[in-house]
Design goal:
- This protein has 283 residues and is of the alpha+beta class.
- It has one domain: Metallo-beta-lactamase, Chain A.
- It is built from seven helices and 17 strands.
- Strand 15 and strand 16 form a beta hairpin.
- The longest helix is centred in the last third of the chain and has 18 residues, at 235-252.
Length: 283
């Protein structure tokens, strides 16, 4: 079934700090990746990896990666998954798609790191006037009301700008969106942050698993999934979530997409049966 999920894949030339828009037409919905930046992830980010592992898997100049978000089109609905840094290149990505801010009614957050929430604001003002922003309850409770040490000015500004439209949360395994074309389920992917979430997007004919920051360097962490980046808050939980979700994707033969995967950000994953995985970007 996976081979039939994509009807077409369009690429625009991407260099660092430029915007790439990748359109992946599904049977009943369309998934679009906006690459806000592309970069290489260097060995210094992966202190838990020994020299032999780094030499074996990490390219000399670092692992190709991106900073991305997803836009999902299903019928008349547009759902945004993460909001990037929110710089001019990210805004241009939405503009190139013809998506006006008022059109988006739902924004799903994989987590609340700055490169996933920046686009929620235009300056200090609310960018999406009609959108409800949903996050996992564990994530919201860590960064906002209960943990003053974790608060950041950016999050405080977002909370002020969106009010009750930012305070709504979901539990894992909850259906967070559904229309006649598409439904979305929130999956437990904790570890990178306390409430880090993956989203399973499904129609009657196709599926896409958006895994957020489950991996930062595909070249290194697919074959060596026990390696964590310095950005992962709880490495042990991160590793457990990474393996559980990748095993699910392998078993169910689901396309996966990640916010820091290399362009085109979407592909299939296979297991070697010995604890390692291999990622095959869609061509």
């Amino acid at each position: 079934m996976t081979q039939n999920l994509f009807l077409y894949l369009m690429f625009f030339v991407s260099i660092i700090f430029s915007t790439t828009v990748i359109v992946a037409q599904q049977d009943d919905f369309k998934a679009v990746v906006i690459n806000e930046t592309v970069r290489n992830m260097g060995a210094e980010i992966f202190a838990s990896a020994g020299p032999a592992t780094i030499k074996k898997y990490l390219p000399e100049n670092g692992a190709p990666a991106s900073m991305s978000s997803f836009v999902l089109f299903a019928g008349d609905d547009v759902v945004l998954v993460d909001a990037g840094l929110g710089g001019s290149h990210w805004v241009k990505g939405l503009t190139d798609l013809g998506v006006k801010p008022e059109k988006i009614k739902l924004i799903l957050l994989t987590h609340m790191h700055g490169d996933h929430i920046g686009g929620l604001l235009d300056g200090n003002n609310r960018r999406f006037p009609n959108a409800v922003v949903l996050s996992a309850k564990l994530e919201y409770d860590y960064w906002l009301p209960q943990n003053t040490k974790a608060r950041t000015p950016k999050l405080e500004n977002i909370k002020t700008a969106y009010g009750n439209d930012f305070s709504k949360t979901f539990e894992f395994d909850e259906q967070v969106f559904a229309n006649t074309s598409m439904k979305i389920k929130a999956l437990n992917a904790v570890g990178h942050t306390p409430g880090h979430t993956a989203f399973l997007v499904e129609s009657s004919k196709s599926r896409l698993l958006i895994v957020g920051d489950l991996l930062h360097a595909a070249a290194l962490q697919f074959p060596a999934p026990d390696i964590c980046s310095s950005y992962d808050m709880e490495p042990k939980d991160t590793i457990a979530s990474r393996k559980r979700i990748l095993d699910f994707a392998v078993k169910e033969n689901i396309l996966i997409g990640g916010m820091h995967f290399p362009v085109p950000n979407i592909g299939t994953v296979k297991s070697n049966g010995q604890g390692s995985y291999e990622f095959f970007p869609v061509k």
